[in-house]
Amino acid sequence: MAARRQMILARAHARIEARAHAAPVTLRSDAPREAVAQDRVETTHDGFFLTRRYDLRAPLFDGGQSEVLAREVFVATDAALVLPYDPARDRVLLVEQFRMGPYGRGDPRPFMLEPVAGRVDGGETPEQTARRECREEAGLDLRGLEKISSHYCTPGYSTEYFHLFLGICDLPELGQGRGGLETEQEDIRTHVIAFTQAMDILRSGEANNGPLVLSLLWLERERARLRAAG
Hints:
The structure is a single chain. The protein is α+β, with helices and mostly antiparallel strands. It has helices at residues 2-20, 100-105, 126-138, 195-204, 210-229; strands spanning 37-46, 50-57, 69-75, 78-86, 91-98, 111-114, 116-119, 144-152, 161-168, 175-179, 188-194. The strands form 2 sheets. Strands 4, 5, 6, 7, 8, 9, 10 and 11 form an 8-stranded mixed beta sheet that branches.
């Protein structure tokens, strides 16, 4: 019950944040949310996760409105993700864990390499979540945070919204460790690897997690600046 209550509060927090921090409009349509005519909304699943079905009519690019569209959406929370990086030693930390997405797709290797990640709880900023999750999953205290992006990950059917960071920190020697909270049934293995090895797994396709790919590409672009700053 407590976990479900936290999810409800986190979803409500995400909805407030969506209205308060809308992305700029310079190229895309500036049609507001209110231009969508909502005929009916139905909650189709209400457990730890939540799904809703909408019957609605959306604005058309050439004017007018669409026919009634039946759409289902997975109502998720916002999440903070952070790639820990040690600029002095030029190494990163990745977490590895079993993931239901690859398993449900039929992937023969359902364990994924990822940035540190966690749900943004109600009343928490993404930056606070990033720091908390680094302590919980990897035992790290960050010295600083660099914002990479804020974005929807699968806007076709999910409300989930990612705040992606690079975390400046001091990393231990190269190798593996363990992390996660037993109370959340987390079984996490951490990998501290050189930047060059991280780029190798990016090029080979072993890094097949979207936020990790984006984080490594951003780090490749900004690495010289970060290393010069120490």
